[in-house]
Amino acid sequence: MTSPNDSNKDIGNDDSEMSKSAPEKQNSLLAGIIERASKSGIGRKKLNPSAVESSVAKNMAEIHSRPTKLRLAFLGGGSFGTAMANLAARNGCDTTLWVRNKRTVKAMIKTQTNKKYLPSYKLDDRLKYSHDLAATVKDKDIVFIAVPGLAFRETLKNIAPFISGQSIVSLTKGMEKDTFALMSDIIKDELPEVNFGVMSGPNLAIEIMKNMPSATVIASESEPLRHAVQAALHSAFFRVFASDDVKGVELGGALKNIYAIAMGMASAYDVGENTKAMILTRALAEMSRFGVEAGANPLTFLGLSGVGDLYATCSSELSRNYRIGTMLGRGMSIDAAVKKLGQTAEGVNTIQQVHEKATKEGIYMPITHALYAVIYEDKAALGVALHLMEAGFRSDVEFVMAHDHSNAALTAHMKTSNNSPDDKKDDADHK
């Protein structure tokens, strides 16, 4: 991103600034956002929400009214990447959506729609499209990456030669297969000098395209980057909140996919509202427990990227992971379910990653372990569910009351029982 020292001009200057070249005007706008963020004096312990809101509103008004715009690139033409790119273009930002396939780009230019992922929605006329990665990334202020987790590292490697100060924001939720790396970890690996952030929240793309009121969280250690993303995406129907807990926000977005699969399976069994509420709250307990062990703030999981995203993903058939769970609950194999879905369901990989990590670190994750047993060990879902219900006593909210002896004892009991011959016999009886 442009440094505050790169420009001594404020974006509110008079008409004499209009004589500048386009790149200078664009850099001036971003510099103005960063300068105002830096001068606001808003620190972690002295947050002033009204100051943030008025600053973002003023910046958005200037973006709409002046030809100087934030230059944004969105990499990945899936439903969420397209929805975010469309929102930025509608807000007046200079926005380019990159899609790998040249034929797809031509079709999007011609029809102004994303026929594969958002076929019923007209995209903003100002949104630009490209299959040329270098041209898309060069000279941009922020590069948003919305490719599937499996392609995230490769995408960063491909854009590395064209990075010369751009900030990176990940829109991808999940963990890299076999490494347990979150997207922020991959950014630090591949682009160690870059300024970066992550976005997460209850953001079902179709609802955003329908202008249904929605919200997201931009998490970054860089306050100027948080301000810039808020200015670019904040609108009447889409609110952008800020956080500096990158790990917590990212884990919320990754872990909730596990429980969306669990809830989809439960819906296939036509469970009651009590059961759904139990799954949802115990899922939140697992998420926060795992997050604390990873260094996140447990309070982050009470926000949009935690309970907000968890609720949306676990209660909507628009969720890919929820649909995978429903198919599994109806007896379909995991391979057949993924093939029928036709899109990436990050929760399938996340279950395996978190199961292995939690087992190794001794983190109590009973729902995750149960899903792993059903999906990867071919255990009967009913038998696994009964085992969960018989698992003994545990405190309800672990970060409110002290971590008592019953939790430690139950964790030790679960480890022992998971390897006992009686469990294997029970599994056979339930099949």
Automatic annotation (TrEMBL):
Residues 245-380 form the Glycerol-3-phosphate dehydrogenase NAD-dependent C-terminal domain. Sn-glycerol 3-phosphate binds at residues 173, 201, 256, 309, 319-321. Its main location: cytoplasm. It catalyses: sn-glycerol 3-phosphate + NAD(+) = dihydroxyacetone phosphate + NADH + H(+); sn-glycerol 3-phosphate + NADP(+) = dihydroxyacetone phosphate + NADPH + H(+). It is an enzyme of class 1 (oxidoreductase). It is found in: Cytoplasm. NADPH binds at residues 79-80, 100, 117, 173, 205, 320, 346. Gene3D superfamilies: N-(1-d-carboxylethyl)-l-norvaline Dehydrogenase, domain 2 (1.10.1040.10), NAD(P)-binding Rossmann-like Domain (3.40.50.720). Keywords: Cytoplasm, Lipid biosynthesis, Lipid metabolism, NAD, NADP, Nucleotide-binding, Oxidoreductase, Phospholipid biosynthesis, Phospholipid metabolism. The keyword Protein transport does not apply. The keyword Ribosomal protein does not apply. Residues 1-26, 411-431 are annotated as: Disordered. Residues 72-223 form the Glycerol-3-phosphate dehydrogenase NAD-dependent N-terminal domain. The active site is at residue 256. One of its GO terms (molecular function) is glycerol-3-phosphate dehydrogenase [NAD(P)+] activity. Its EC number is 1.1.1.94. Residues 421-431 have a biased composition (Basic and acidic residues). SUPFAM superfamilies: 6-phosphogluconate dehydrogenase C-terminal domain-like, NAD(P)-binding Rossmann-fold domains. Pathway: Membrane lipid metabolism; glycerophospholipid metabolism. Belongs to the NAD-dependent glycerol-3-phosphate dehydrogenase family. Catalyzes the reduction of the glycolytic intermediate dihydroxyacetone phosphate (DHAP) to sn-glycerol 3-phosphate (G3P), the key precursor for phospholipid synthesis. HAMAP family: NAD_Glyc3P_dehydrog. This is Glycerol-3-phosphate dehydrogenase [NAD(P)+]. The lineage of its organism: Bacteria, Pseudomonadati, Pseudomonadota, Gammaproteobacteria, Moraxellales. The gene is gpsA.
